Each structure stands twice: as structure tokens, then as C-alpha cells.
């Protein structure tokens, strides 16, 4: 079952909504209101079945090595998907947002195909649909279980959400998770859901740029923040908690280890905050192995996500155990499995014993070793 996933966390928009600057607070409040409505729409879709973009896109073309992209213009309205403005193979548009969305969908499709042999988000050639220019001053981008949607940003805090290719890769990876492990979007499993999207969003950017793990910036959403904002991106996988520190946005609250785990009822149990912990674990594993991160560390994470060993409610300790097992299964008991195990140890997560995701295994607790929840 798909979930409604946005790239800008609710806690960031909450902070902006309380700004003394009326223009900033109003744009943030409108975004929060529309996000809440879209979450409700997504829940209804799981009950009544697919509509809109799913039906417009048509059936998946199984086995295709070519993406089937359709870009729509929402024309600053909330009716999706909106008029079609570019289709697969059509000439370049005069609208830069349309072209960036088209290229970003293509980069994501190519990375999954060339690096992992996966055809589109569902593995069977699912057509990729996106809508640009959603609402007015909309400060977000999201995957709604059926398609991608991009806002233009308010121009003062956020720029056009089609700019960073890793944002596009992040959101489409929610679709990959939807069609594979389908991790629950709450608590630690939700943080893993978000982290997996950050991991592959970053890998898609690295693949597109031909970067090694050492050359990569490990930032999510670089280029999205307006020039006046004190920050580099939405999140840093290398150094969680350092992406921004701005009078309007506040300070990046992500922890980089279990000692800083945030227990909260907001944001589905802090899924966008605590994702910093598994994010850093992946960075550490990738940095230790070196070279192109999508080749070894990325392969291990992909095997874990799609291998069928995870339950939907997997915790950090379960995922850690599954990644070590995946590294061993693919590469043997060598540097890959040691690097993965050491990365999780560094962030304070001890892999659970037994089969990943099953009942009765220890659950990692904030600042502690494995104990029952």
C-alpha cells in the first residue's frame, strides 16, 4: 500500500508557519493544509482503488528498458495530473521545470536499470508520471503512491522542487519501497522508509554525475534552498544535523547516532528526523568501501530492500541485520560485510539476532543496546 511522502519534513513547515513574516508563514500554512488533504486522499485511494494518474498512464510495459514518461502542468491548481505538456521522446519544452522533471525521471529510471537491473519503480516498466507547477508557492514535492508532484517553492525559502535530481530520485524511491519491502510509515520503520529514499536519491545523483563516494557531497536537496537561507540542503547523510541553521527554518534536528534518537509523536514518530541515523550508517559503509557507492554499498541496500527478508514493521536493528546478511550473501564474509557491520556499530545500532523483521527479536532503543521495546 502506497503512502503520501513529501521531501520537506512537517517540522520544517511547522517552524515556517510560526514565522513573524506573514508571507512566509502563509505559504507554509497553505502547504501544510494541502499536504494534510493529500494524505487523506492517499488513504481513500487505498480503499477505492487507483484513479487519475494510474489510469491516465495506462498499464506497465513489462520488460521495457526504456522509460515511459509523461509530464503534466498542474497550472498552479490542485487537480492532478493536469494537462499533458511533454511525453516520452517529445521535443524539449520551453518550460525548464517540465524539462528538469522529465530528465529527473529518466535519470532515476536509468540508475535503477543500469545499476540494479530494475525496470521502473515497480520492476515491470511502470510508466512514470509527474506534474509540475502544483498550487501557488507550494513548498514541497511528493510521491502520492501514483505519481510525482512538484511545487515551485515560495522563492524566498525554497526554489523550484524540480532542481535537485536527488529530490526526484528520493520521491520515486518511495515507489520502489511501495512495490518491495513496503515499510510502514511510522516510527523506526518509517525512518527506514525515508532513509532508503535518501540513500537512493543520493546514489541517483552520484550515478548521474559519475561521482565516487569521496567526491559526493552526500546532501539531500542541495540547490533547493534560496540563496538567502543559511544552509546547504534539507539533510546531510555524512553529518546529520548540519544541513541548515537558519532564523526562519531553525536548526537541522537530525541525529547521527542512537544516542540522539528523538522520541516524538509528530511526523509519524519522527520519520524525517531519525532517518539521519540509518543515513549516516550507509554513508559510513559507502565511504569505507570507496569507489562508486551504488556498486557495493548500494547493492547491499538494494538487496535488502527487495530481497523479501524484511517485514513492513522492521526496526533499525532488523534492517542492520538484514544488510549484514545481504552483504555476506553477495560478497562472502569479507570487507563488505565488515564495513556494513562497523557502520551500524558506529551509529549505535546492534544488528538484531534471528530472522530480520520477525517477532521476538531485540528492538534497538534510543541510546541503548538491544532491548525489548
Structure overview:
- Residues about 45-60 and about 355-373 have low confidence and may be disordered.
- The chain is globular, with a radius of gyration of 19 Å.
- Helices cover about 40% and strands about 10% of the residues.
- The longest helix has 27 residues, at about 20-50.
- It has helices spanning about 10-15, 20-50, 55, 95-115, 165-180, 185-210, 265-270, 275-290, 295-305, 315-330, 335-345, and strands spanning about 5, 70-75, 85, 130, 140-145, 150, 220, 235, 245, 250, 365, 370.
- With about 375 residues, the protein is of the alpha+beta class.
- The strands form four sheets. It has a six-stranded mixed sheet, with helices on one face.
Report the mean per-residue pLDDT as an integer: 90
Strand order of the largest sheet: 1-5-6-4-2-3
* Extended strand count: 12
Count every helix, treating DSSP H or I runs of 4 or more residues as helices: 11
Helix content: 40-55%
Q: What form results from the Cα inertia axes?
A: globular
The poorly predicted ranges are 45-61, 354-373
Distance between the termini: 26 Å
Structural class by SSE content: alpha+beta
Series of secondary-structure elements, N-terminal to C-terminal: EHHHEEHEEEHHEEEEHHHHHEE
Topology:
Blueprint: E1 5-6, H1 10-17, H2 22-48, H3 53-57, E2 69-73, E3 84-87, H4 96-116, E4 128-132, E5 141-143, E6 148-150, H5 165-178, H6 187-209, E7 219-220, E8 235-236, E9 245-246, E10 250-251, H7 267-270, H8 276-289, H9 297-306, H10 316-331, H11 335-346, E11 363-364, E12 370-371
Parallel strand pairs: 2-4, 4-6
Antiparallel strand pairs: 1-5, 2-3, 5-6, 7-8, 9-10, 11-12
Helix pairs in contact: 1-2, 4-5, 4-6, 5-6, 6-8, 8-11, 9-10, 10-11
Amino acid at each position: 500500500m502506497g503512502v503520501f511522502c513529501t521531501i520537506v519534513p512537517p517540522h520544517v513547515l511547522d517552524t515556517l508557519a510560526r514565522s513573524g513574516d506573514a508571507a512566509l508563514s502563509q505559504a507554509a500554512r497553505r502547504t501544510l493544509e494541502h499536504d494534510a488533504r493529500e494524505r487523506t486522499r492517499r488513504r481513500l485511494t487505498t480503499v477505492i482503488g487507483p484513479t487519475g494518474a494510474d489510469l491516465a498512464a495506462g498499464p506497465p510495459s513489462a520488460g521495457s528498458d526504456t522509460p515511459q514518461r509523461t509530464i503534466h502542468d498542474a497550472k498552479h491548481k490542485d487537480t492532478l495530473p493536469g494537462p499533458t505538456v511533454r511525453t516520452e521522446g517529445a521535443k524539449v519544452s520551453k518550460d525548464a521545470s517540465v524539462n528538469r522533471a522529465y530528465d529527473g525521471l529518466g535519470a532515476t529510471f536509468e540508475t535503477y536499470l543500469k545499476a540494479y537491473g530494475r525496470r521502473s519503480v515497480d520492476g515491470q516498466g511502470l510508466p512514470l508520471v509527474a506534474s509540475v507547477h502544483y498550487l501557488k508557492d507550494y513548498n514541497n514535492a511528493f510521491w502520492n503512491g501514483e505519481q510525482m508532484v512538484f511545487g515551485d517553492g515560495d522563492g524566498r525559502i525554497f526554489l523550484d522542487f524540480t532542481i535537485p535530481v536527488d529530490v526526484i530520485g528520493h520521491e520515486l524511491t518511495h515507489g520502489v519501497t511501495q512495490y518491495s519491502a513496503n515499510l510502514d510509515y511510522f516510527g523506526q520503520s518509517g525512518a527506514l522508509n525515508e532513509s532508503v529514499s535518501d540513500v537512493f536519491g543520493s546514489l541517483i545523483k552520484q550515478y548521474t554525475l559519475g561521482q565516487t563516494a569521496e567526491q559526493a557531497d552526500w546532501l539531500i536537496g542541495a540547490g533547493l534552498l534560496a540563496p538567502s537561507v543559511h544552509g546547504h540542503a534539507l539533510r546531510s547523510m555524512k553529518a546529520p544535523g548540519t544541513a541548515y541553521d537558519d532564523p526562519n527554518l531553525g536548526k537541522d534536528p537530525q541525529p547521527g547516532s542512537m544516542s540522539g534518537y528523538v522520541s516524538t509523536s509528530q511526523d509519524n514518530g519522527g520519520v524525517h528526523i531519525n532517518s539521519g541515523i540509518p543515513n549516516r550508517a550507509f554513508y559510513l559503509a559507502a565511504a569505507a568501501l570507496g569507489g562508486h557507492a551504488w556498486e557495493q554499498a548500494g547493492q547491499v541496500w538494494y538487496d535488502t530492500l527487495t530481497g523479501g527478508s524484511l517485514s513492513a514493521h522492521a526496526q533499525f536493528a532488523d534492517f542492520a541485520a538484514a544488510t549484514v546478511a545481504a552483504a555476506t550473501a553477495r560478497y562472502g564474509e569479507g570487507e563488505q560485510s565488515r564495513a556494513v557491520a562497523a557502520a551500524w556499530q558506529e551509529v549505535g545500532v546492534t544488528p538484531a539476532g534471528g530472522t530480520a523483521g520477525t517477532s521476538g527479536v531485540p528492538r534497538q532503543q534510543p541510546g541503548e543496546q538491544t532491548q525489548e521495546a
